[in-house]
Structure formats: structure tokens, C-alpha cells
Amino acid sequence: KRRRWARIRVPNEKMITCRISEPRELAGDTEFLISDINVAGIAFFTNKEIEKTNLKLLVKFPFTSFNEASSVWGKVVYCNKVGDSQKYRVGICYVRHKKRSN
Fold first, then answer.
1. DSSP, res 29
2. What residues contact residue 80 under an 8 Å CB cut-off, 6+ apart?
3. Closest by alpha carbon to 76, among 31, 3, 22?
4. What is the distance between the alpha carbons of residues 55 and 43, in angstroms, rounded to a whole number?
5. pLDDT tens readout for residues 15-51
6. Which residue has the higher pLDDT, 94 or 38?
7. What distance lies between CA 25 and its chain's CA centroid?
8. Cα 75 to Cα 66: distance, rounded to the nearest angstrom
9. Mean pLDDT, the chain, as a whole number?
10. Residue 33: which H helix or E strand, with range?
């Protein structure tokens, strides 16, 4: 079955990175290198396995800071170990997240 959307590989010199900002137990200052991006989702590399859950990511483009980062909600659709290394490739599909009312 063919993909509906083509992936756009991010060249290493462009360094588009992301951070997990929610859920809190996964949030932190660790930056993950984005491997590819398209209108349906993002794939990035991490040093630990991530369960299939919803995440809020802050996406930082070159020459910006995390203060200027874009945020996006996504669902982890896969987390695959990369060969014999200690890295995992995580695939996220975008999801619409409704704001909670207090």
C-alpha cells in the first residue's frame, strides 16, 4: 500500500529538532533530531523507547530558539530500534488536541 503523503527528509545540516513537552513524565530539555516530516506527521530519533501515546512536541527550526518553537500534538504510531545501536526511530502522526476547560 502506498503512502498518501511523501516524506521530506531533513538534511543533517538543517538540524530541525524537537522536544517533548507533554506528558510531563516524558518532557525535558533533550533535543531529538527530526529525520523526516510531512503533512501527516514527523519522525525523530531518540535514545529510549517511547510507548504508543499522545505527545506534545515543540519543533525548532534552524536559526530559531525553543522560545519561538512551534507546538504540535501527535500520537506515537511506531517506535523501532535502529539496527544494533541504542537509538530508536519514533513516528508521530498529528492529532487535533482540544483544550481543557477549567
1. S
2. 88, 89
3. 22
4. 13
5. 788 899 999 999 988 989 888 888 888 999 999 999 9
6. 94
7. 16
8. 21
9. 83
10. strand 32-37
Would you call 39 helix, strand, or coil by DSSP?
Answer: coil
The C-alpha atoms of residue 25 and residue 17 are separated, in whole angstroms, by 20
Rounded to an integer, the average pLDDT of 1-12 is 57
Nearest to 18 by CA among 76, 54, 59, 49: 59
> Hunting for cell 512536541 — which residue is that?
57
Q: Are 82 and 89 in contact (CB under 8 A)?
A: yes
Count how many residues are written for the chain. Answer: 102
pLDDT at site 92: 94
Contact (Cβ atoms closer than 8 angstroms) between residue 40 and residue 93: yes
Grid coordinates representing 30 are 533533550
17's grid cell:
529538532
The 10 Å Cβ neighbour count of residue 30 is 13
